[in-house]
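hey m, so remember when u said the tokens were messed up on ur end? i reran from scratch. heres the input so u can diff it against urs
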Amino acid sequence: MAAEGFWFLVVNDLHHVDDAGLPWLESAFLQMRAHPEHPKFCLLLGDLVETASERAFTAVRHLVDHLGMPVHVTAGNHDWTANADRRLFDTFFPEARNHWFDHEGWQVVVLDSSAGNVYEKVAVPDSSLAWLDATVPKLKPGRPTLLATHFPLGADVRYRSTNADAVLERFKDFDLRAVFSGHFHGLTERRAGDIVLTTNRCCSTTRKNHDGSLEKGYFLCHAGPNGEVTRRFVQVAGG
């Protein structure tokens, strides 16, 4: 683990619609790329588009490919087509199924929590739980760990996954430090022991924040050398 730690970005709910909103999103991604802290990777937590279409995904894929850092994506409910099909999303983001990676001694788990277009009372799919059961034994219990989902896992947060506790239970023997989620467009912070579970405002001009706030943006986060995770909200200019 690097002595000074590292920086990373967490972005949720772009809800890209069409070319009219593209200049704002382009400026948002340019702002993310320009941070002097030089973030090492970005977690992009679903609802990339408002309505799943080849044109919308093409635009977001272009932004992702030119961000200048690895981007780890998970699907949101808006990323499925109207007939509960996610093949179009998977075509543009084939690496976005459940996955995990190691960065400077930190384990980062990106969990698929959406199940069709349904936006509330949604359980993390059995396929994702099965993947967790197969993957968690491969993780090292003593290493600091991050978890990223689309649907919130924090207690009493609106739209929380109905089986959130079952997900968190699978990490009970691990050094889970922070959980980042989207879907609820608003700043929330919950704690489960030493774990901090958050959601954030959306990074979109096509959707409002559920908490009534007006600012749009993302988190700039720091993973410290002693396993601490800090974050600050960064407002996108004009948002």
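this time it looks ok to me. The domain at 6-235 is CATH 3.60.21.10 (Purple Acid Phosphatase; chain A, domain 2). if urs says something different then somethings off w ur setup not the seq
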